[in-house]
Every structure is written in structure tokens, then in C-alpha cells.
Amino acid sequence: MSGADEIAVTYALELKAAGHTTSILLVHTPAKNDPLVARLRAADVPLNTLASTAFSASIAAGRKLALRAMRACSPASSLIRTNSRKLVFDLLQRYHGACCEYLRRHRPDLIHVMTPDPGAVMLIRAAHETNIPVVYQEVGIPFHPPGFEEVYERFVSVLPLCAEVAVLSPRLGQELRRVLPQLAPARVLPLISQDHNGASAPNHESDRVIFGFAARLEHLKGPLRLLDAFRIAHQAHSGIELKIAGDGSQRQEVLVASRRLGLTEKCHLVGVYLTLKERSQFMHDIDVFVLPSLTEGTPNAIIEAMAHAKPIIATAVGGVPDVVTEDVGLLVPLDDIKAMADAMSRLATDADLRRRMGLAARKKYEQLFTPCVVLPLLIDFYERVVDGRAAGHGGSESNNGQRRPAKLIHPWSIVNA
User: Fold this and answer.
1) Are 156 and 120 within 8 A, CB to CB?
2) 409 pLDDT exceeds 80?
3) Any idea what the CATH number is for the domain that residue 68 is in?
4) What's the pLDDT tens digit per position in 294-324?
5) CA distance 71 to 60
6) Which range marks the domain in which residue 229 is found?
7) Given a cut of 80, is residue 172 above it in pLDDT?
8) Where is 303: in which H helix or E strand?
9) In 46-160, which residue ranges form alpha helices assigned H by DSSP?
């Protein structure tokens, strides 16, 4: 379950709910118990795959072997990573013909791609060959995280084949422009976060403040740094607790660190929430949401916490400062554990500040990320791309030559103007 997967599924579900025909096309077969797949099936959104189950399984097995080899022989890890990625890229290009056949058979009006991986390269090339317009949306930061430069360099070669490039927030658009100045300025398409009316306060004692973290337990999400900051804050405020939702390669390290720091009674690993109800319950039960990532685009989890009227503490990376302004939370410098601890202490001792920031967070969510705000922008964006292709240019005229209405306004459209 990646952030891009979550965004794609939410877009598809909201478009379907609004009466549009949508479908998801994957290169690999998803896991049977994938909760995102369950959401698509429940909404009757078609899910199609190109590669066989055996091929997908062999790719997954090859990645595991490569990871083991890199851990066993760290001096050669860079070479192993490069060669394994090239092998995966070459293998996936074999599905170009099958992808073209699929697109000719189904004739979609438009394709929306969100990940810069080898499968996306193949899909964009196939769409170009079959004359179907493609939108690529950068949901992270180009050439981040470190070590993925070669992936983006290969992906950049197909970006000129896309009808439009979009980003999730203004800062990410500026970063894309800085890294890839040859591209036309990207348009901002914000996240859609479904509202489940979860803005009520948790019911626990006033001196018990619960901080929440929900992300993959991986190095770049900073869970071990969060534990160090929580330890410092806990020394001064013994009533605070920490709930951690998620799983990943650092899960065991997090468990070991919590024992080493003497925090096992105050640090709770609750696993992965699989349903919207579980997600809403997690966000309801916390008082403050914390995300100490080393790199980010626009995190889904922050938007979900804002929808539940939670104040935010986060590192000032990527598109986070577009969302976490001073009225809704506290930004801290990258990798500054003391600043993170100070922010936690400040919110732990000021219930009125938590309440004010939470209300402001909810208001910002309503202004920027609700389906009723974002979906019209998304539909308008799609229609302009399709009309531009039909007219033979990227302009704003419809098929009958009439000018389309003025562009819909979103607060970030004004910032990006």
C-alpha cells in the first residue's frame, strides 16, 4: 500500500461515485488481501492486470534476492541495485505489445499515471503509440529519495510523451520545475481525502496526551527518530503516549528501541489499519499527529489527520509546508530530534493550542482536500486534456470549437498563478 496506490484508488472511487466510468490497470497482480483492492471491488471499479501471476511472483522473488545480496555484500550494493533495476526494466518492456492491445481494445479517453517506475514507462509508451493522452502526476519529489536517481533519469525520457504533468502542491511544482526545467510548468491537482466525519475529540483524561504516527516503518519515514524525540518529551511529561500504525523493515528495530528506552508501556504498535473505519478510529483516538519523514510529497496521513481535526507536527520537507502552516501545526527542521521533542512538549502542555490548531486543520482540509472541492478540478483537468488532444493542441477549446468555461479556482491555483 503506497501513497500513490491510495491516491489512485481514491480518485477512481470518487470519479465512479460521481457517475464516471473508471478502471485501474496494474502491471502486476495485487495480493489477494490488499485492502485497496477490496475497496475497488466493493465499489465495482474494474481492476485489470497485464502480467501473469507467475511473472509477478518471479519479479518479487528477484527483488528479495537482490536485497539479501546487497545486505550481504554492501561494497557491491550499488552495482547490484543498478543491474537488478535494469533487468526489471527490460523485462517489463516485454509487455509493451500486450499493453497496446489492451488499450486498443478498451479505448480509454485518458490515462493517469502516478509512479515513475518501469511499468509506467512501458504504459506511457504504449499509450503514445495508441494515441491515448496520458497525464503523469508526480506524487513525491523528483529524484528523491536518494538512490533512485537512475530510476527517474530513465523515466524522464518518456515525460515528453505525456499530454500534461501534474503535482500535488505548489512547492512540489516548484521543485519539479527546478529539477526538470525542460518541462512545461506542472498543474496542481491536490489529494482527495474522503471525509468520514471524524472530527470529534478523543475521550481520555486531560493529562493523557496521545501522539500518533501512521506510515511505513522505514528509515525515510523516521520512526526511530520519533522514538528518540518521544523519549525526551516523556522525561518532562510522563502522561504522554505514542501510538504507531504501520509496518515495514524497521518494525523490529522500533520494538527493540522502545524496550531499550524504557517506553514499552507508553509506546503502542497497533499494526496496519486495513479499513476506512479502522483509520478513522486511529485518528479519533490520538490528540496530535506526528510525521518525522526525511523526504515527502504530500502525505496522505497528514491530510487524514487534518480531516479529523488533529494538530500536526512534521518535518519541513517536500510539500509538507504547503499543508502544515503555522495555524495548523508545528514544522521542525529535518533530522532535528530536539526540535521534534520541543514541539511535542509544547502541544502536550497546551490543550487550548491543540484545540485551535485542530480546528484550523479541519478548516484547511475542508478548503483544500474534500471530494466536493477537488473532484470538479480533476474532472475539468481531464476534460481539458481530452479536448486538447481531440483538437490537436493543448488549448482550452472543446471539440465543437467553443471556448471552455474559465478554469475552476482552488486556493492553490491562486498561489501557483
Assistant:
1) no
2) no
3) 3.40.50
4) 999 999 999 999 999 999 999 999 999 999 9
5) 17
6) 210-368
7) yes
8) helix 300-307
9) 53-72, 77-92, 96-106, 118-129, 149-156
**Domain match, 25 and 151 both:** yes
Residues 261 and 283 sit within 8 Å (Cβ to Cβ) = no
Q: Which of 323, 400, 316 minimizes the C-alpha distance to 361?
A: 323
* 315 in Cβ contact with 222 (< 8 Å): yes
**Number of domains observed in the structure of the chain:** 2
Cα distances (angstroms) measured from residue 299 to each of 211, 252, 318: 17, 24, 10
Which grid coordinates belong to 80?
Answer: 547490484
Q: What is the dihedral of CA 156, 158, 162, 164, to 10 degrees?
A: 0
Q: Is residue 114 part of a domain?
A: yes
For 2-37, how does the pLDDT look when each residue is reduced to its tens digit (9 = 90+)?
Answer: 678 889 999 999 999 999 999 999 888 888 888 889
Grid coordinates in use for 78? 550499488
Q: Which residues contact 213 (CB under 8 A, 6 or more apart)?
A: 223, 226, 242, 243, 244, 245, 246, 289, 290, 291, 292
Distance CA 327, CA 320 (A): 14
Backbone angles phi, psi at 135, to 5 degrees: -105, 125
Q: To 5 degrees, how large is the angle CA 293–CA 295–CA 296? A: 90
Residue keyed to cell 482552488: 410
Cell matching residue 221 = 519515514
Residue 124, judged by CB atoms within 10 A of its CB (0-12, 13-18, 19+), counts as buried
pTM for the structure as a whole:
0.88
What letter would DSSP give residue 187?
Answer: E
H/E segment holding residue 165 = strand 164-167
